[in-house]
Amino acid sequence: MFSRAKRFVRSRLANLFEDTVNQSMRRDAKAAPETKVAQKALFHYYSNLLSGGRRIPALDETGFRVFSQFDEDGRLLFIFAVLGVHTGVFVDIGAADGVNSNCANLAVNFGWDGVFIDADLANVERGRKFYATHPDTWAYPPRFVRATVTRENVNALLEAAGVAGDVDFLSIDIDGNDYWIWDAIHRITPKVVMIETHVEFGLRSIVVPYDADYVPPGKHPHYHGASPPAMAKLADRKGYRLVGANQYGFNTIYVRRGLGGGAARSQRGERPRTPTKPGTPAPV
To answer: Of 63, 81, 82, whose CA–CA distance to 72 is shortest?
Structure first.
């Protein structure tokens, strides 16, 4: 009996150890040297295709997940390769802990700087600890801001976080007032915006009225946010064009007009035209 008990305990301990090792390996694989090398090689592959006037993939062929919840990491890598942005600055509003995030891969594997904003203290503390102790970010970790973001305070929060003007990426995912927050932002001008839409509204242009006190899921969990067509109209008004979405269609992606004009031509097999002035983007 005692011998069987010892074997059982040893077996449980061995399984526990194996599970711990496997979880650690899966976590570490997200930032392993081979992960970095593969992604940077892919970045330069896309860049070389574009600069050589060769056909580049369609955006929906480029998705994969490293840190992001779905396939956003791969699509963002492709977009920033097309735009020639290897290392940049991000702002993530509704970031949770900043680890399962659209910006984590940029911070950890590409050395981006940026700001994570979330209302939950536990999320912020967990994120700060992750980036302060991670070997790739401990020296210059991204900043965390704990705040409930509203139309009224978003620009002040950005100012306090030290971001202004031209930034490279803005991600908004707050499950409610996303549309109204982007509409209110004027302190930063991102090159690329990824923002959550409410695809359940279909192709109708619908925006749920602004509610500064909204906390998800609210009284009506299926009635919040804005439909993709409504968000695209806002983007157009702010000077952006829709380029795609994640694999499920709800995280829509916009690029500032005037940027990446050569990409569409390369997708048609045409050579990108030379910019009309040095240092200016190729005409769209």
So the answer is: 63
| Cα–Cα nearest to 145, from 189, 178, 98, 206 | 98
Rounded Cα distance between 11 and 2, Å, is 14
Instruction: Spell out the domain ranges in the chain.
Output: 1-30, 33-267
Amino acid letter, residue 96 = A
- Which pLDDT tens digit goes with each residue over 97-145? 999 999 999 999 999 999 999 999 999 999 999 999 999 999 999 999 9
The structure's pTM equals: 0.84
Is the distance from CB of 108 to CB of 136 less than 8 angstroms? Answer: yes
User: Which residues 6+ apart lie within 8 Å of 134 measured at CB?
Assistant: 31, 108, 141
For residues 11 and 33, give the distance between their C-alpha atoms in angstroms, rounded to a whole number: 33
What does the CA dihedral 61, 255, 174, 164 come to, rounded to 10 degrees? Answer: 140
Sheet strand arrangement including 165-172: 143-146, 113-118, 89-93, 165-172, 188-196, 251-256, 240-245
Residue 18 in this model has a pLDDT that exceeds 60: no
User: Would you list the DSSP string of 13-57?
Assistant: HHHHHHHHHHHHHHHHHTT-HHHHHHHHHHHHHHHHHHHTT----
Q: What is the CATH number of domain 33-267?
A: 3.40.50.150
Tell me how far apart the alpha carbons of residues 163 and 144 are, in angstroms, rounded to a whole number. 12
Of 52, 155, 66, 148, nearest to 102 by C-alpha is 66
* Residues 213-237 pLDDT 10s: 888 877 777 788 999 999 999 999 9
